[in-house]
Design goal:
Butyryl-CoA Dehydrogenase, subunit A, domain 3, mainly alpha, 5 helices, two-stranded antiparallel sheet
Length: about 190
Amino acid sequence: MGCISGVLFGLLQFVAVALVAVGTPLAMFLPRGEHASRITSGYCITMWGIRDRCLLLVYSGKPEDVWSECNGRTSRFKAAQVCAVAGAIILAVSMLASVLDTCCCCCIKYLCLLLNLVAVIMLSICWGSLLDCYLKKQGSHLVGNVDVCTPLHDFPGVDNSHPERMQLGVGFLFLVIATVISFANVFIILIPC
């Protein structure tokens, strides 16, 4: 890989790793009253559960507790968790391998290419699983007077405290942007200069 494309690849790879690392614990879904592009301190749903205060690592409900009766929703959340962590690790390894590629060994370019393709697939599965939960109803189960299996864009919260429903959060946006950057890096790594 040429020096310019190697440095550009490394920088973009660092941005993608940072977006995944920062975006993974943040809000995937939050009430529509909140501004989606901000990191909020209010109610949110992350990959690991529901938080009443989004910036604290205290969960009021885990996916397996809230959505255990919803067909496949818990497994989608688990798939998103695994794929996000795996994607971050793969992107980091690819970033470190690109340093070797820039310095001495040009054959590592193909390893970086392969790792980026795998990372794109993992990250796409991650946010695709969450988007499926956001758009589709997965069964029906009432908790109090709330059907918790409703699509998450219609989810009012377990205690019906958010009648405005949910929207996609900044963590979700970070994962999508990281996927796009990783996909672009597949082509950047092939630039000969």
